[in-house]
What does this fold into?
Amino acid sequence: MRSSTGGGRLAAGPKPASAAAPLAGRGAAAPVGPDAAPRPVSPRAPARSMYLLHHLLEPNRGYRRLAAWLEARPRRRRLFTAAEKAVKQELFGCRMCGQCTLPSTGYACPMTCPKQLRNGPCGGVGADGGCEVYPEMRCVWLEAVERAESQGRTGDLLRLQLPIDHRLWGQSSWIRYWQGRDEDLWTDPVRSGMGR
Amino acid sequence: MSGEMLDARAGRPGRADSRGAPGGEAPRSGGAGVIPRASTVTFRATLESGAFTVTAEIGPPRGADAGAIERKVAPLRDWVAAVNITDNQGASVRLASWAGSLAAMAAGVEPIMQLTCRDRNRIALQSDLLGASALGIPNILVMTGDHPRFGDHAEAKPVFDLDSVQLLWAARVMRDDGKLLSGRNLSPPPDWFLGAVENPAAPPARFRAARLAKKVAAGAQFVQTQYVFDAAAFAGWMTQVRDLGLHERCHILAGVGPVSSLRALAHLERGVPGVQVPADVARRLRGVPEDRVADEGIAICAETISELSEIPGVAGVHVMAVGAEHRIPLILQQAGLAPMLAAGRRGHAG
It folds into this structure.
């Protein structure tokens, strides 16, 4: 049996500081940072509007210049990063890993998965769609698959997501994205299509 | 090491010292090298021959006794192609899977070393992979791992630096390109047969075959699934798998296991994420006298194996009977399978 202790959450044992934060409700902001225990977050923004917004944020010369300008000015960069964090935390429970994969996961953040799985759900998803670790919350990968499917973006889910760089926690992902530094985050979709 | 095959069974000292680790004692007394070797590599060859292949799961002991592994694997020697040695299963501390793998080799059974992403970052994972290859462990099974929250150290820091797909990728690149994730060269590169896990029964059902496709693309050469109690539902997943052509690129072993008591049944129904026991299976188990539940569980498991062996593309079964490993031969017998070493295995036109 894969899990030796069933029956919901464990209360026993001293808790690490990171787990002492109050349990985030569905859709509420998740704990930020690499050391905070992640909890699944259902995105607040509809997938359709996010894909539309994505077009507006696509890299162009203007954005590239803005990114370079921000990068050279630490104070402005910090302000910009704080704004990015506020928006993405509110909408997706963003934890500021600095390597945003939202456009390839139906705009549901896989870093809010307690196992931080970037390549799809684990095998412990409950029959009701509950997270293995927090059964009362919905698996964030179920959100991702449904949202991507609803927008005809299932191919995105077949990309191999490569290991992230943990030095980038807390940094602005938009600045990196506009400067073309996010291009090695994932591969093309693997050959096979989705089952019916 | 070299090509010297140490027959560890013959070379082992007596069992008077219960702490006598086969991996440590045998070579010293035999003087033939430091590493015990299984006498043959059978798992991969069996799969590639197209024969119906059986593996079994072995949980290492909570204690410093490699003999416990030997006692569990010895009765299975003639019956299985390999045994999985779990990696701190259920996030509870046990003897390390690499050490358990060496103990299994010393007992003459080929190991499949499980390696989870829960407890190690990419440095430790790649280091352990190198170690496994250097010590002659022929098969690695890569998985994400249970969250520490469910284990005996719920307060532990979960690592999850890589996920299972990323670790498969890293391992394949280490072996095939001789490179670490950092890009540094390995000399010589490691070599193992790489496996993954999948749970066809867990939501989202539509994505489960696609997820296997990702694992195969990343490097999985074989896959073992979570418990299958509903062969018909599994056949549905296999249809998707065949549609994607995955069974031709990856050997698929269906996970099975006997339910040994009504308590175990209740635990499976409530407590094991991703496992669903169909109502008719539960009804059968609850319909017999309490002292016959274990036998009924074995009968159900044997029937499931028979049904699974008829599904095109199924390469074999992985039997998970942790705590009741000694009953595995009985299950296989009831399923109509002959001992692997005696009669060869049933051919299977997948």
